[in-house]
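Hi Y.,

Following your request, here is the sequence exactly as I used it, all 241 residues.
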Amino acid sequence: MKRISLILLCTLTLLQGCAGVILAGAAGTALVVSDPRTPQEQWHDQEIEMEVGRIVAKPEYRAKLRIQGVSYGGKVLLVGQSTERELLDHVIEQVRRVNRVQTVYNLVRLEQPLTLAQISEDTWITTKVRTQMLADERLKSMPIKVVTENKEVFLLGYIDKNQADIAVDIARHVSGVKQVIKAFEYVEPKPVVTEPAVSDTSLSNEQKPLAEQGAESEGAQTQPYYDESQSDGAITSPVTF
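Below is the corresponding structure, written out as tokens. Let me know if you'd prefer a different format.
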């Protein structure tokens, strides 16, 4: 998988730090340096996230909602809280009209915005999740983004299915996590090539490409959160990216 350096622009940062190849971003978020997107694609996603930040910071929304947007290839995941459904719908409609937004995934909860203490706890959970991922040789250089909202951990990035399962298993066993929600876009794993002991012909252990999740549509669409499944430890739920 092609890897390039991430040019990171952080906004609304409550806690920043660095460990290995993972950089801390917005509160409750971790961004990974290794990323298969082109620099232009990364910049476009950052522009989208900044525009979402400007939308939810409008005076009419103060004390009524707390929402952050995470964009990957123009696919925007909205997480947070809103006290009113009408306000949330208004925000979603504005996000859908942002330049280069393809799809909006709404995972915002209808409840009171989190307190500073709750936000700090989410940041600590994110730190624990990313630290454990860094400690795992199979994941420490993978482009996985971690977002925590009210003890719900959202995992995003371009990785293969096996790596996604490993990441989910790590996250759902971290103390304090009540639910893990997958928002990965799956890529084809690299073929494993081995050298035989006698034959001159090398063997290639090729795997069939994993079907890419999500379907293109005309204009930006809004996708609701659904499909929860019970598992040992924290609940694991998928979001089709």
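The helical segments are 39-56, 85-96, 116-135, 161-172.

Thanks again,
Q.
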